[in-house]
Amino acid sequence: MYLKQLDNKAKILAVAPMMDWTDRHCRYFHRHLSHDALLYTEMVVADALIHGDPARHLDFDATEHPIALQLGGNEPEKLARAVKIAAPWSYDEINLNVGCPSDRVQSGTFGACLMREPILVADIVKAMKDVSEVPVTVKCRLGVDDQDAQAALDDVAGVCFEAGVDGLWVHARKAWLQGLSPKQNREVPPLDYDRVSRLKRDWPDRFIGLNGGLTTVEAAQEALLWADGVMIGRAAYQTPRFLAQLQRSMFPRLAEPLDDAQLRDVMMEYSRRHLADDGRLHHVTRHMIGLFAGEPGARQFRRILSVDASSAQADETVIADAFDAIQSLAA
Hints:
This protein is α/β, with parallel strands linked by helices. 45% of the residues lie in helices and 12% in strands.
């Protein structure tokens, strides 16, 4: 599906990779809100696949397709090895993280730190492309710290496209590695969509998608007048209905999101399977608590899915209780 979109230039809706959030349970939930969104894993560091348990990081439910694996690291050989290790899992895209500003990536000198080393980014892209049978993309920032956003983004984009990258997702904000926490960097410095649109004008035949601050259908529609795709982060997680709204807006002739009763039943069945594999209910329900954000009964829904579901004895009926609380108030 994603390969077809790249070929025919159809617009792409994606849910951003988010550490501690977009795990397999979150992605399963999101898939049933949007049949067509490209879902991203959390960032997986190449060393974790090379030296750890690949299945722990790579397993996913077939329902999650189309799904992209985001990798982190700064050594071309290791990232190529990670791509080869992941190949049997048949991800639809492999993405290189060149945008995360967390302390973890700074200590490893990867993520947003790579914005300072465009030649290395190009070497990594080429190494990944040489061993990948699926598209390889890069997710980057406008620049870091005191870099000039015009030159920094042009440098990274130019060498990536020369190295054969299949697409570029641009978070339209600089990463600030000194003086701001990752949380503060979500709001500061300001977003600059014009900078990304200028890049698209410079590379009209290359896939360039926009990420950062898209919280309304109208904002996404406006971006899609020039961008090849929109990537939604916190808004998709904290207000999941937004993802369903984008599905209806961008793919009106394709699959409709499930209604509440269908979604309840799907997540109960999924939770039942997870519990049978010695999982805990809150592993699943923690990703669902924002579903009715802003609606009557949302607080009760959140309470049930966060408090009741945290019990070691909690089973899938807790999900039914939460939906019942919403329905009783609606009635």
